[in-house]
Design brief:
Strand content: under 5%
Order of helices and strands: HHHHHHHHHHHHHHHHHHH
Helix content: over 70%
Length: 550
């Protein structure tokens, strides 16, 4: 039995085990609606209070006034629970700052490499004097820097900051977490250097040589240990749904990466099968759970209202775990693999509508009557946009798996557009919003230029919109041209040129938004700009959490 079948069989067995755990939990009544668990993100007396650290005091007052309900009364938050939260934040300050700083560095590097590779698609003779400047290498540098450098570091920063808050206990083993972060980023830097020099394993999303991948695996193991130990020592009875998503995501990415990078095991057709098993799962079982977990925390926290249905949120988690493991096979439709494998993948892709519908209904119910708050809160704007894009990208992915659509979209820029709708419009926008909320609590200092947050948001939104619409149209026309036997292949290439130029326009706006984001972050760290609330970096003095709670 080959390695690919073993990997897929293992994923299938894990899904079956998860199904039985899900059935057992229903019999035990663990999925009965749990208002206490839904409210665990709030301290006693905090319900009804809005919270957006990206706003000035006057802006937060406007947000609170807009969120006020007739007859509603505000109470003072419980000081003991607020102090517990402050203690949790202080225990994670240095590790979180480290992860976000690394994320910002890789975001800039990856964005510039991505824009360079985009320009090369319609200016192929630009920057060709050195081998590392060629499209194949610079595009892979972009992929590695963005997926592993930016998204993975930002996701780890969010996880390390959120879990102690939700578990109401300080992080245990912060030094191990920082060691893990150092190992992961050593691996990323080494991988980018190796790819630039032409040393790669040649599998999409798995280009990192396995010898370098050892550093990344070791880094994840250093982080998983403290996270699990903190989970065991929690001070809460009920686990909030974000904990489920984020702890599972950490375990999933470690397992996925280890299996995907096993040296000398995956070859030939089996390698392609394993490649797309990993390639889709790194999005669906690493980026997606972290981002959905972020929305489940930040969106209710900002508007001061618990999630509409805790039961529905848990249903979304389990159905994601059940159905996502086999989705990647639809990328191999028409390839030399068993027909049952691609059919199973198509069925699983369509079943993914269930967790997406559960999430969408839940978020719509939570925001019902408070949609207008997006006008006041920049962080909420990122979260709502990201949540909407999660629904759209997931539904598009499910239907794109159908053979009738796949035969046109496959091998075209349409797939590239879809990938960016998920990885950027959904995941990256949610991470931007999370960082805007987190960093004032981490650095004990407010964002110096709040208006830049809105500027960055709109540049990113307009940029990804141009990017996605242009490549979707161009990719679909490209697919139709390739299927037309009466047209020469070069027709399918030349007709995409205008759409590739629009891709570069959209990419330029996105890069500009990233430069503004990182510059604003540096200004905050270095204390440039107007003096705001707070004291010195990581000061043990009175925290912003208490300052905003008074």
């Amino acid at each position: 039995m080959d390695s690919a079948i073993l990997s897929l069989l293992g994923a299938f067995l894990l899904s079956i085990i998860g199904l039985f755990v899900f059935i057992w939990s229903m019999r035990k009544g663990l999925l009965v609606e749990n208002p206490k668990a839904a409210s665990v993100i709030f301290a006693r007396g905090e319900l009804g209070r809005v919270d957006d650290p990206a706003l000035r005091s006057a802006g937060e007052a406007q947000l609170q006034a807009a969120a006020a309900e007739p007859g509603g009364m505000l109470h003072e938050p419980d000081p003991y629970e607020m102090q517990n939260r402050v203690g949790a934040d202080r225990s994670t300050a240095f590790p979180v700052f480290m992860f976000i700083a690394f994320a910002c560095f890789w975001l800039v590097l990856g964005s510039l490499a991505g824009l360079t590779s985009s320009l090369k698609l319609h200016m192929p003779d630009w920057l060709v004097s050195e081998a590392w400047m060629t499209f194949g290498r610079i595009r892979t540098v972009h992929l590695t820097a963005v997926l592993y450098g930016w998204i993975t570091n930002a996701a780890l920063g969010v996880i390390i900051w959120l879990l102690p808050r939700l578990l109401r206990t300080p992080l245990v083993g912060a030094m191990w977490v920082m060691l893990g972060g150092a190992l992961i980023n050593t691996g990323i830097a080494s991988a980018i250097g190796a790819i630039g020099s032409g040393w790669t394993d040649g599998m999409e999303y798995l280009e990192i040589p396995w010898q370098i991948g050892i550093f990344i695996v070791a880094g994840f193991l250093c982080i998983i240990g403290p996270v699990l130990y903190t989970l065991v020592n929690r001070k809460v009875e009920s686990l909030y749904v974000s904990v489920w998503y984020m702890v599972a995501a950490l375990l999933w990415i470690a397992l996925l990466f280890i299996v995907g990078k096993l040296p000398g095991v995956h070859t030939g057709v089996q390698q392609a099968t394993t490649n797309w098993w990993y390639g889709h799962n790194v999005l669906g079982l690493w980026f997606t759970p972290v981002s959905v977990g972020c929305i489940y925390y930040f969106l209710p926290k900002i508007i001061g209202r618990p999630v509409r249905s805790y039961n529905l949120s848990i249903l979304g988690f389990w159905t994601l775990a059940f159905f996502y493991g086999q989705v990647g096979g639809h990328h191999l439709i028409g390839g030399p693999i068993p027909g049952w494998l691609t059919t199973l993948s198509i069925v699983q892709s369509m079943m993914m509508i269930i967790p997406v519908a559960a999430f969408t209904i839940n978020m719509a119910g939570t925001m019902w009557g408070r949609m207008h708050l997006v006008l006041y809160s920049p962080t909420l704007r990122f979260m709502m946009f990201g949540g909407l894009m999660y629904m759209l990208s997931s539904l598009q992915g499910s239907f794109e798996a159908l053979r009738s659509i796949n035969q046109v979209a496959h091998f075209t820029h349409f797939t590239v557009a879809h990938a960016h709708l998920g990885a950027y419009a959904f995941v990256t926008m949610v991470l931007f919003g999370a960082i805007y909320f987190m960093m004032p609590r981490v650095l004990n200092w407010e964002w110096p230029y709040p208006r830049l947050i809105s500027v960055q948001f709109w540049l990113a939104v307009v940029g990804i919109s141009i990017y996605f619409i242009g490549l979707s149209i161009g990719g679909w026309l490209q697919g139709l041209a390739m299927l037309d036997a009466t047209r020469p292949f070069m027709d399918s290439v030349t007709l995409t040129i205008p759409y590739l130029q629009w891709r570069s326009v959209g990419g330029s706006l996105m890069v500009l938004s990233h430069l503004i984001f990182v510059s604003h972050f540096l200004a905050m760290v270095l204390r440039f700009g107007p003096t705001r609330t707070g004291a010195a970096l990581f000061s043990p003095q009175k925290s912003m959490e208490l300052a905003h709670g008074e």
